[in-house]
Amino acid sequence: MNTQRLLTALALVAGMALGATWYSSGERWSAHAEAPAAASADRTPLYFRDPSGAPLWSAGPKKDARGQDFLPVYDDEQAAPEPAKPQQQADSSRKILYYRNPMGLPDTSPVPKKDPMGMNYVPVYEGDDVDDGTVKLSPGKIQRTGVKSEPVERRAVRVSVKAPGTIQLDERRVSVIAMRAESFVQKIADVTTGTRVKAGQPLMQIYSSAVASAAAEYLATITSKTVGGVEMYGRGSRQRLTNLDVPEQVIAEMEKSHVAPVTVQWSAPRDGIVLERNAIEGMRANPGDVLFRIADTSVVWALVDVAERDLGNIAVGQPVTVRARSFAGRTFAGKIAVIYPQVNRDTRTVRVRIELANPDAALLPDMYVDADIDTADATPVLAVPDSSVLDTGSRQAVLVDKGEGRFEPREVKLGRRGGGYVEVRDGLAAGEAVVTSANFLIDAESNLKAALKGFAEAGPSQPEAPSNSGMGEHK
């Protein structure tokens, strides 16, 4: 009996060693099935994954759509490294400093590991993380991201200030015809509002008792003679006619003919356009009544509103190009004549006067125009393209291309902007190359490497707290 029991025990041991299955009393027992089950009963799964390998996870036991149980994942399975890939074997000659999170999270590990998604941590080799403040990119990444560089050169920065405005008449080229004594309009020439007139062209005939009396007195004075035969021209009588605004050619005709006219002909005082005609034949004109208003439009003003922030860039005498919205493709050249000493509190703009030649009278009063003020300085300055500047608001920086895939972030001080370039007053030297394209991607790479390096340096001095998320390091 003892011999039988001994043989049964030996067969059981041999069956367990060979992976055999033993049946007893209708029950099935497997050596490989019981051992893991017993070991798993003593451990707590980190999570449960989909049995088909799909990217689905669960914090507790769960079944998929086909009724299969989700598989438990334990801590030792999460930390098990995958076999080395060909790329890792190719880099085996280089020293690995640490492993960083493949999703860019601030998490590093001194040994290979996986994240909760099953992705391998990325190795960081010696030489990829240097302390000279530069960022190193591989040639492939530079080509994929489209990194472009351009040398820093000296050039004239063209700063153009644009401002809207309207056309206005030159205040110094407007004349009015008004009577200085009670008068009557006898006759009016064929002149209406909008008619272009020449200086000296007849406008109307006026009868005034005050003018007739002064003319008779002046004639009587110039025709009288003294005992010595010297004529008394009566400067006082002539001045009275001048004070009544009698045209100079009328007075000269009286001195020549010695005849006082009944009516006086009034003429246009200047070349221009009749802006206003209030005279009517037979009407009575009181002193001060404006009968005609004439403006010379050969020179007009463009009054534009310049933004307050651009006030420091403009000055009297700067050339201006004006474009009228009524004449597409045509420009008018002028210069800044006056900068008004007042800021509009509502629009935060400053009024600027630009004088424009208008020989063909194309520019009309109250016409909308757009002014382009050229504030360019002929002196070349160190300048870089606008796209090369990384501006955070409080500081400005550029990425200097050091060659061989290395890029150095450098803080700069900027000046004027214009024409797609910005002046660099400090931080760069002529001939250095700056990144003009994909610089934001390089800046993001620099920030990521700096953060990872900080975590890697802080890792040995600060022990990591236990975590059930699978993100912790494994010894």
TrEMBL record:
This is Efflux RND transporter periplasmic adaptor subunit. Keywords: Transport. InterPro entries: Beta-barrel_RND_2, BSH_CusB, CzcB_C, MFP_Cation_Efflux, RND_pump_MFP. Residues 174-295 form the CusB-like barrel-sandwich hybrid domain. Residues 382-442 form the CzcB-like C-terminal circularly permuted SH3-like domain. Residues 130-149, 455-475 are annotated as: Disordered. It comes from Bradyrhizobium zhengyangense. NCBIfam families: RND_mfp. Belongs to the membrane fusion protein (MFP) (TC 8.A.1) family. It holds the Pfam family CzcB_C. It comes from the Bacteria. Residues 300-375 form the CusB-like beta-barrel domain. Signal peptide: none annotated.
